[in-house]
Amino acid sequence: MRAGKLRHRVVIQSKGASRDTYGAEVVTWSTTATVWASVEPLTGREYMDAQQTQAEVSTRIRVRYRSDVTYVPEMRATWDGHTYDIVSVLEVNSAHREVQLMCREVT
């Protein structure tokens, strides 16, 4: 993976839960990592193919390999005022060099 493509500063967050004084669950997000990444909206055929296999994937975020990033619903990424739920995590060529986060934007 070439460093020049990683020009966006992305925050990867993990979901946590706590209880308020009334006993209701309160969702909190804590920062897992702040990484350099490439944020790429899916276009054309990629978007159509993603819609058939995954629910509402609209963006690919490429980062250097990280073992602590998973696709469970308890993780998300934020960048430039946008929030993305991580739908799946794809390791490129199983080489531990690059991870692609397939995401959908939260509105």
Explain this structure.
This protein has 107 residues and is mainly beta. The protein has one domain: Bacteriophage SPP1 head-tail adaptor protein (Thrombin, subunit H). Helix content is 9%, strand content 55%. The protein has one helix and six strands; from the N terminus they run ββαββββ. Strands 1-2-3-6-5-4 form a six-stranded antiparallel barrel. The longest helix is centred in the middle third of the chain and has 10 residues, at 44-53. It is elongated, with a radius of gyration of 15 Å.
Offer a few descriptive terms:
107 residues; mainly beta; Thrombin, subunit H; elongated
Please give the count of helices.
1
> Strand arrangement, largest sheet?
1-2-3-6-5-4
Largest sheet: 6 strands, antiparallel, barrel
Structural Rg: 15 Å
Shape: elongated
Give the class-level CATH name.
Mainly Beta
The number of strands is 6
Mean of the pLDDT scores? 85
Q: Give the terminus-to-terminus CA distance.
A: 30 Å
Annotated CATH architecture:
Beta Barrel
Instruction: List unreliable stretches of 5+ residues.
Output: none
Estimated helix fraction: under 10%
Which helices and strands, and how do they pair?
Elements: E1 8-19, E2 25-41, H1 44-53, E3 59-64, E4 75-79, E5 82-91, E6 98-106
Antiparallel strand pairs: 1-2, 1-4, 2-3, 3-6, 4-5, 5-6
